[in-house]
Amino acid sequence: MGVFGGLGKALGLNKEMSLDDFMTASEAEEVDVMHQAADFYVKPIALQMDSDLKLVEEELKQKNIVLLNISPMARNATKLKVAVGDLRAFIHGINGDIAKIDEDKILLTPQNVKIVKSRKR
Length: 121
Hints:
This protein has about 120 residues and is an alpha+beta fold. About 40% of the residues lie in helices and about 15% in strands.
């Protein structure tokens, strides 16, 4: 039995009804059937356009940690530099933290959550 089969059985779905029939995509985003509710989350977000900056800011205001994929905006280096500068200013204003994980990912933390940037050997 696959993961979705087991999930379907746990949700009380029969063979004629699929998980897609059970809930729409928008409902699925709000429900985490695998885990209990948490106080804060780590949320992956892709930086594709300027409006995504507001989404990142809102998540940080809700005290969630953001793993930001910057590769979609990397084609426009000037736009990316401005966006990251805006995020740095926002992070500084809320006493959060920001760190580059690799060429495509940036980690952003909310108020009073700091990132250890030195490596212990």
